[in-house]
């Protein structure tokens, strides 16, 4: 897993419209990367809806939230629509980002050969440096949302 003060690995992933989105698109801005194991699962839904409900707190300080999982963009589009998500959900279908960030959860849910993302949150500052890093000890644990907000607010 990556830690604070390290450079965030660059990536280009596709959004729900299959358009490329790169971390470098947000140069000079604070970005909150929210990696989830899978769309349409209980804890992942609760987590992304918590970020949805708090989006004003991030927008008010100029931060962008990006949800990332290994699901297909079609699944992510349905998930975002069903839950009224108000930030992009990116597809890491080839698992390059989860591997670059050191958060690949191999054999997820006892499915041999299936790799998902470990539930993780990274706050990246405008220079591309990780200022906050959290990885769940298991997929059932949500992040401390107040801690994430505080990390973002400290960069404002």
What are its keywords?
5-stranded mixed beta sheet, 156 residues, 24% strand, alpha/beta, two-stranded antiparallel sheet, 9 strands
Give an account of the 3D structure:
The chain has helices at 42-53, 55-59, 73-83, 96-100, 145-153; strands at 12-14, 20-22, 30-35, 63-69, 89-91, 104-105, 116-117, 120-124, 130-135. It has 156 residues and is of the alpha/beta class.
Choose one word for the global shape. globular
The count of β-strands is 9
* Strand arrangement across the biggest beta sheet: 5-4-3-8-9
**Which structural category fits the helices and strands?**
alpha/beta
SSE inventory with pairings:
Elements: E1 12-14, E2 20-22, E3 30-35, H1 42-53, H2 55-59, E4 63-69, H3 73-83, E5 89-91, H4 96-100, E6 104-105, E7 116-117, E8 120-124, E9 130-135, H5 145-153
